[in-house]
Amino acid sequence: MEDYRAIIGENIRRQRKRRHMTQEDLADLTGMQPSSVGKIERAQANPNLNTLLRVADALEVDLPELLAAPSSERMNGYLHNVYLPALPEPNRSAARALLQILNDVVNIELDSSYVQSLVAQVLRLIRHSFYEVISSRCQDTMYRGLRVYGIKATFYAMGRAERVKVIPDLSTDRKAVERFVAQLNRNFVSYDNFMDLLEDFMGGDEW
């Protein structure tokens, strides 16, 4: 039980400091006393599920992030927008393996942009997808010359792009397409899911 409390306390302290919050700030957001927050972080208290849910909500993290052993996913703080348990296989296993390797070989704090670049390269070597915004001029007679925005979707497997899907004239709203692409990249969308979501986007669903 002591190890379990220590894991929770360390995770709460780390997430709190990442958000530049004091123990008093977290106490105010959760309805606890600052001393109670301190005891939880020092593994001197055993918080119940309701308390942990309030803490997770205040820290804007998913509950499993407070329960996972930091030694296995310590680098998760560098991987913004990547929630490992939500990743489909084999992306989840590859991401966990990458984190473990980094934990084993790195003894200094890494630059986050370098880690982001490294992760992007590794993910492209397994079954993975990447989406980007493209632009062109409309060729339709009525709207010839109008700037339109589309999507280039690339699906990778075994180190190669196995499928590329280009939709050149999806919308004239650049920001809407950029939001859509950002959402796709955050969720590691497969080809089949991409086509379904594309229909939703073209049907006017907000992204």
From TrEMBL:
SUPFAM superfamilies: lambda repressor-like DNA-binding domains. Keywords: DNA-binding, Transcription, Transcription regulation. PROSITE patterns: HTH_CROC1. Pfam families: DUF6514, HTH_3. InterPro entries: Cro/C1-type_HTH, Lambda_DNA-bd_dom_sf, TransReg_Diox_bact_type, UCP033595. Residues 12-66 form the HTH cro/C1-type domain. The keyword Flavoprotein does not apply. PANTHER family: HTH-TYPE TRANSCRIPTIONAL REGULATOR, HTH-TYPE TRANSCRIPTIONAL REGULATOR SUTR. This is Helix-turn-helix domain-containing protein. The lineage of its organism: Bacteria, Bacillati, Bacillota, Clostridia, Eubacteriales.
